[in-house]
Structure formats: structure tokens, C-alpha cells
Amino acid sequence: MVAQPERIEVKTEDGAILHAYRDGNGPHLFLISGLGGTAGFWTPVVQRLSPRFTIIRYDQRGIAGSSRGTAPCSIGTLAQDSLRVMDAFGIDRATVLGHSTGGCIVQCMASVAASRLERAVLSATWIQAGPYMRALFSMRKSLLPTAPQAYATSAALLSYPPDWLQDHWAVFEKAAASAPLSEQEKVIISERIDALLAHDGHEMLNALTMPTLIFGAEDDIVVPSLHQHELGALLPSSAITILPKGGHFFPVTQTEPFAERLAAFAGGKQ
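User: That's the sequence. What structure does it adopt?
Assistant: C-alpha cells below.
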């Protein structure tokens, strides 16, 4: 039987209530998800690593069980939320991993509180969106007002390898069933897209002096591996791991190699 996580509510200064979770035992590993913003994204990784690590994760503001609050949605706001979650659990330092938009959050966390990051993992993320990413996310954002189900299903079609998705078709059906139909849901997703496209981490990179791992997948068509190679060139002391396949959601589709590389890095191996 899988143990139930410890769940707490974390209140921010602007009134958001963040649902945060702690699983397992061992060194602290803080997992921050991407545009979807859910703690649930990390379930397969938690199942594999919770026997070796204490894993922290949370639903970001306005997502799943967490309320929106009144602060503008920006990468800076989300970074402060993440630090507040660490405070609420009494964690001074941790290995902090951000996937996709979460990687932008980690860059910002390092720029304002580098001492809190024992190690940093930048997974499927970027330093600044280029023309390809801007076109892709602008296209997806344009679907929200009138075709929210197409928005939701496009996430599945773009983020998973076709063969994996065909073998796990319930994932597609779940995405379709959870389409953002309310105006509030559409606004929250739209502002999150604006935030990720506004991210420019060039001035944040000097703060990434802690051991840093860059993770990507060759077949990621949402955040292509060219962005991870760019990060690697700008952070020459970092380690870089590019999986041969897995799509954008490789922590889900390639959980075993992802989790084992992460465990080795968090355990002190570069």
C-alpha cells in the first residue's frame, strides 16, 4: 500500500491558499511542475523516489486545489510561492527541480534566494522563449476563448510521444475531460502562458553557482532540446542529460531513467 502524503495549506500574503504535499524519507527534493502547475504531475516520480527522498510538491496558485490570490501571476510571484512552501515545511535547503515553466521558477528562486537551493535541476526548460516557442504557445492560447477542449487535447498530443500516448489513451481522454471550460480557468491559463513567455533568465544565471543539472529529451516538440543545449552553453559547469525519447512530459513517459538520474544527482553525483 502506498502511504498517503502529508498535506498542508500554505497561505500567501495576497490571500492565495496553496495545497502542498510531503512524501517519503531522506534528503529533501522539491519538485515544481510546469504550465499545468499540478502536484499530481509528479506521482510516478514520487512512487519511485519517496523511499529515498523526502519529496515536496504543490498545486500552484489557481491550479487544482489551490486558490488564485490577488497578486499578478508572474514567474517572480511563483518563485516566492515556492519559497513560502519550503518555509511552511520548515525546509532551509533542498535540491529543487523545475520542469518546463517550473525551470523558469527555479532560475528565479536562485536569483533571489540562492542559499535555499542545495542543487538545481532545470528540466525541459529555457533561458528565454524564441520564435518557435512564442508561436506554439500563442497558438495554444488562441484556442482558449472558443475551443478549450482543443486546447486541452493539444497539450496531450504535443507533450507525449505518439506511441506512448496510443498505449496510454486514457491520458488523452482525461485531458479532454478536464478542459478549462469556465472563464476563470481560461484566464488563469492565459496569464500563466503570458508569464512563461515573458521569462528572461539571462540575468539570473549568475546565481546558479550550486551544482546544476540540465535535463531534456531529443523528441520534445514543446520545449525543444536546443533550449537545453543553450542553457548548457551558458552554464558550462553544469551537467546535461538529454534522453533520446520521452516527449515534453518525459518525467512521466521515461520515469525510470529520469528518476534514477535525478536520484544520482541529488545524492551528490554530478
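The chain has a mean pLDDT of 97.
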